[in-house]
Amino acid sequence: MNNFRFWSPTEFIFGKNTVKNIAASIQKYGGSKVLIHYGGQSAIRSGLLADVENELQNALIDYVKLGGVQPNPTDTLVYEGIRLCRQENVNFILAIGGGSVIDSAKAIAAGALYAGDFWNIFEGTVAVNQAVPVGVILTIPAAGSEGSANMVITRTDGMLKRPARGHQVLRPKFAILDPALTFTLPPGQTAYGIADMMSHVMERYFTQTPHVEVTDRLCEAVLQTIIEQAPVVMLEPHNYEARANLMWAGTLAHTGICGVGREEDWASHGLEHELSALYDVAHGAGLAVIFPAWMQYVYPSGVGKFAQFASRVWGIPETENLKDIALKGIQALKNFFISLGLPVNFEQLGAKKSDIDYMVEKLAINSGESLGNFRKLDRKDARAIYEIAAQS
Amino acid sequence: MNNFRFWSPTEFIFGKNTVKNIAASIQKYGGSKVLIHYGGQSAIRSGLLADVENELQNALIDYVKLGGVQPNPTDTLVYEGIRLCRQENVNFILAIGGGSVIDSAKAIAAGALYAGDFWNIFEGTVAVNQAVPVGVILTIPAAGSEGSANMVITRTDGMLKRPARGHQVLRPKFAILDPALTFTLPPGQTAYGIADMMSHVMERYFTQTPHVEVTDRLCEAVLQTIIEQAPVVMLEPHNYEARANLMWAGTLAHTGICGVGREEDWASHGLEHELSALYDVAHGAGLAVIFPAWMQYVYPSGVGKFAQFASRVWGIPETENLKDIALKGIQALKNFFISLGLPVNFEQLGAKKSDIDYMVEKLAINSGESLGNFRKLDRKDARAIYEIAAQS
Fold this sequence. Notes:
The structure is a homodimer of 392-residue chains. The relative contact order of chain A is 0.11. Chain A has 16 helices and 8 strands. Chain A is α/β, with parallel strands linked by helices. The first copy, chain A, has helices spanning 22-28, 42-45, 48-58, 75-88, 99-112, 119-122, 187-205, 213-235, 240-252, 267-279, 283-298, 303-314, 322-339, 346-349, 356-362, 379-391; strands at 4-14, 33-38, 62-66, 92-97, 134-138, 151-155, 160-164, 174-177. Chain A has 2 domains: 11-181, Rossmann fold; 185-391, Dehydroquinate synthase-like, alpha domain (Up-down Bundle). In chain A, 49% of the residues lie in helices and 12% in strands. Chain A binds chain B through residues 1-16, 18, 210-215, 217-218, 220-222, 224-225, 228-229, 241-242, 244-245, 248-249, 252, 257, 260-261, and chain B through 1-16, 18, 210-215, 217-218, 220-222, 224-225, 228-229, 241-242, 244-245, 248-249, 252, 257, 260-261. β1 (4-14) of chain A pairs antiparallel with β1 (4-14) of chain B, so a sheet runs across the interface.
């Protein structure tokens, strides 16, 4: 087990009708002038935005609104949010939505207190030492951004999708998680979320760091829960209990608790970002295509870990040789994604094999660097994985 | 799943040589005049106390010391600590030790900023709204107090051992966890710690709250890790990796993450407190005696949950009727405790059957109240459980 620091100070407020805590929670963390940041029409249509505005008005909390966050959120709206925060002296940002809205809110929060161009943070040249406090009302369990120190933004100029990780001051002050808010998520978005949260666990699970039994088992616990609850929410979208278990699993998947003490991987996220940047597909859909392909390519670098994944997570009997068990585990994951209606190859995703050269070229691999850790991938490896994903 | 709030803001600094972070960590949380609180000779003999004093002196941090915390820490030393904090204008308390030292430090931290008698907090008549910040260097993985909002103190007058739970401001600011500091723990103390951390999970695991799959699986993950690592640390006390997994499991067992969304039980802790108050035995030893007895008495109130415990945690095949599987799980726990050299009945603990009346009388059950939640226990039930523990 490696040395680590783990700090997850977010206050999670979970359950039915917890949105009614919103004014008190904002005030607890010093908010008096709020930027409400949200996505498209669903927050309006569902009445959630109006409910929040009512609560804030009743508590005499002043606010401005900035909607319109799209999946794969872009720098354009972040710049607008930063301008608005400065102009209106905003001292709290409330994100209502899923990972895209929260990530956009985090980028605004960091950018508003940084004198230069916020994109420097995503180029890795600047650390985030201060930020406007952020609170969350989560409506899409998927990205885990409500409990993480990470964010991903796409730069419109050149469609560069880039993550910024480990900026601890960006962890939300609180996250309100009401499973009932997820009842109306369409099946596709529910499934994308499932692939996303599973990927967050698996990016941590597949490590070469030895002796990480306790976090291995936590990862397996979260994965097993997701695998168990996913078919239920697909069949019964209004099943509160299944939605609740899935929602909390999605948060646990990404607070960091599943990754402490080990070198994490994150190659699949890197490979996927080029897909969703180029085709503007859902991140979770891209991950469902990339992750099994990545597994098929890298499993020989640690067949024992893949066999453990197969037997403990998928219940594959440990009666055969490790390679066969490992391959059955990968196939089980792929079958599971298919059962949720997720794409598992380029064609189903709407991606083109002929674009592989372009994606490989754009990958965030600087000269002399590699992608991932379970197996260090160069551009040749990345191309091979894209080709597996294209063919399968 | 029940509604819940989960807030665990403690910064966990885990790994080899992490004690060298002590001065920076204290300063990060505003400490300039520190009370170093510790137990007996081991912190002195090991050189840990001297190391810490050196670090503080080098950083020009002023401090006073108060040692002498005993297992089952008492109010006497808490009163002395409170006096010292006020007299010396202490603004940070550093606990070096295990649960007894940390709990004593928490009680001092709360009492120093409370004008009345700190014992009121343990009588449940006063909430803790402010406290001197506490930091921890953990030397005994067991109580989980380094990441919890709880504490237990014994009032010398009448030997009343009482818990105070859910005082969130008492969560330590940071906890330094170096597994190498636990190499020299004697086998007995190691085993008591294992029983204690397993009990913290099981007090949460056994619930009547339905649909708590994700936390059930987290509990099982932590228990399986402990069961796997415990024999290794007993055989190889200097095995860093096994000590590391066990230490982190002990913390996870009690931050609250294993209990969210469910009604927890805590009857066994209540029953045990009378044993350790009366005989001054280790809390973990008492729990090893009480928990299997409690299980044997209450399992008919939820045989399915006990069967799940047996099959998922202990690998008992699910081929028989639920009752038989449940009973095999309880026996497996008992056998495991025996394999660690733990007492599992009154005689082995040095407790007397003839004292049962006295213990039942002193139990913290007020008129009209009961103990625990999986099955609500009255004094008659408590007596029956003590009798099982006495006979088995």
